[in-house]
Amino acid sequence: MKIDDVPQDRGMITDDRREVCYAVDDEGRYVMTGSAGWEPKNIANRQAWELIDVAAAQALEKVHAGKASPLAYHMARHQMSLGLLAKYAGIHRLKVWLHLRPGPFAKMSTPLLRRYADAFGILVSELKTVPDTHVSRSGDR
Amino acid sequence: MLYSSQETIKIDFTHRQSAHCESGVCSNLLYHYDLNISEAMAFGMGSGMFFGYLPFIRINRLPLTTYRCEVGGIFKRVAKRLGCRVHWQTFRSPQKAMDALDQQLALGIPVACRTGGYWLPYFPPAFRFHFNMHNLVVVGKEGDDYIISDPVFPDPERCSRSDLLKARFAKGALAPKGTMYYMKAVPQEVDLAPAVRQGIREVCRRMLNTPGPVIGIRGIRYLAGQVRKWPKKLGEQQALLYVGQLIRMQEELGTGGAGFRFMYAAFLQEAAALLETPRLVSLSRTMTEVGDRWRKFAVLGGRLCKGRASADDTYDAMAALLLECADGEAAVYRELLELTR
Question: Which of A18, A35, A138, B314 has its CA 20 to 30 A from that of A100?
Answer without folding.
Answer: A138
